[in-house]
Amino acid sequence: MANTKIFILLPDGVGLRNFAFTDFYKKGKSEGMDLVFLNNTPFDLAKMGFDEIRLKQNRLSFFSEVLKSARKEIELNCNIRKSKDIVYDSYRFPFSYTTIKSSVKSSIIRFLIQLFDSEKGLKTVRNLIEKKERKTNFYSESYELLKIQKPALVFCTNQRISLAIAPLLAAQDLEIPTATFIFSWDNLPKGTMVVETDYYFVWSSHMKKELLYYYPYITENQIVITGTPQFENHFQLDNIVDRETFFNQNGLDIHKEYICYSGDDITTSPYDPHYLSDLIKAVRILNKKGWHLGIIFRRCPVDFSSRFNTILEANSDIVTAIIPKWDKVGEGWNTILPTKEDSILQLNIITHTELVVNLGSSMVFDYVAHKKPCAYMNYNPGRKDHNWSVEKIYNYVHFRNMPTDAVVWLNSPDEIADKIEMILRDEAQEVVGNAQEWFEKINQHPAEESSKRIWAGIAKICKKEIC
């Protein structure tokens, strides 16, 4: 009898959005797969109706953290030398010297970078990471578990969490196939590859090319193009509630049309409150011209700061904040749990708004899935920050394949009102078409069939049809 046991390794909570709250789990079950989450998070998946094996929470050792950080820095250096492009410097975080421990850590990382700063040295660091992880208790525990359970495949839900290394190495040492999913559209240029598996599931042909470019030790036959399940909820139309119900549930004015302002995290957009304030001013101008507009503010789910409070309180006649339905069970961003309810909430916010405004967010793809436009903030606020600028954001590698007019560019506060009005008059259809073209390049289409394609890829691996 064929082995149908598939272990879904969940090294952190963010993978739940793609692999628990979409059709992925249901489709696997319908195809006769025996799905078990290897759960290394603080979240109780059994209460949510999922089969799980709880792994013991582990902290990465000091030396493993150092090696991981050195690896990223060396990768970025190699990318600069290979591409002759200093954009990769913008993916670095400054070294910390605020405490004795952080100073020691930063000093060791910088020493390792000097010692191993080459493609050959990078390989040495990768080998040191594996050697170190094989000596951990977590590796031994994972090895014994997998030896008993004998799954057909261990599938890791993202490539960037170091705690996934040990169980994946244990599987490989037991000759159990392993795979990982590249989590986000911007991950590969950043040097976020931490795990090394037998197979890599990617969003698109474009991402496949990126993977081969940045990681030349990976071969074409190790890569499976599937798309990402994160957009599947936009095609589950049974989850849409009618306008009147949605407006009543969220305290919205039934006589208004709404614009969504989608917030970023504080690192990506430290001046997000400034941009929201500018949008509010533009809406007030338009309302004086006879429009009846409001703003729905959806903050970044991992942003629990108070930085918007003053603006929201002072403009409650214009802005309604709808809080994302994520569960916070720890202090780190990766201990914040997405929920199925939030996927439904996001779907309904998009359905009942005319457009989205933000700074460089992938929400452009969520909205174009509904044939609705996105406007990107594209100017620097009055305040100066030498470590941040809007030019830096839009120079990131993942924006370089973007058609020129896939969004409406808001290049100054003064033009926001006119451009929003242009969108509301339905004069942005060319922009929507360009955004759709971009979406199809970034993510394999049909977008609603990504889970189906992932399971087809898993089945081929289990049948040894991909080698």
UniProtKB/TrEMBL annotation:
Name it.
Answer: UDP-glycosyltransferase
The organism encoding this protein is Flavobacterium zhoui
